[in-house]
Amino acid sequence: MKTATLTETKNQLSALIDQVRHGETVLILDRGRPIARLASVIAEDDPAPTGRVARLERQGLLRRATTTKGKELFRQPRPKPRKNTSILSALLEERRSRR
Question: What is the mean predicted confidence (pLDDT) over 30-58?
């Protein structure tokens, strides 16, 4: 959820409305205290995730595939895990390094 001050809301209302139109919710703050929430009414009626996917793509957080997956991908054997490794420790290390 994005936050915006009253001044930012007044100065950038069109941009905030565009973000809301694409699934973002904006919490409006007055002197650090939440006073309003700007949310889309379209998102409530439309359960399709296309708006959310488009928003993530515009933000650079998602990139759509340009080709289809080849059947060869599923025919290849899965990689073998290394000895003395733990999935849990790898996950925790990844979270610590914020990758």
Answer: 78
Q: How far apart are CA 48 and CA 42, in angstroms?
A: 11
What is the C-alpha to C-alpha distance for residues 94 and 99, in angstroms, rounded to an integer? 6
Q: What are 44's two structure tokens?
A: 């409530």
Which whole number is the average pLDDT over 35-52?
73
Average pLDDT for the chain: 84
Question: Could you give the residue ranges of the DSSP H alpha helices within the chain?
Answer: 6-11, 13-21, 42-45, 50-58, 71-75, 87-97
For residue 68, count CB atoms less than 10 angstroms from its CB and return exposed for 0-12, middle for 13-18, buried for 19 or more. Answer: exposed
Q: Which of 10, 52, 5, 9 has its CA nearest to residue 32?
A: 5
Cα 70 to the chain's mean position, in Å? 27
Domains of the chain plus CATH, in order, are 2-97 (3.40.1620.10)
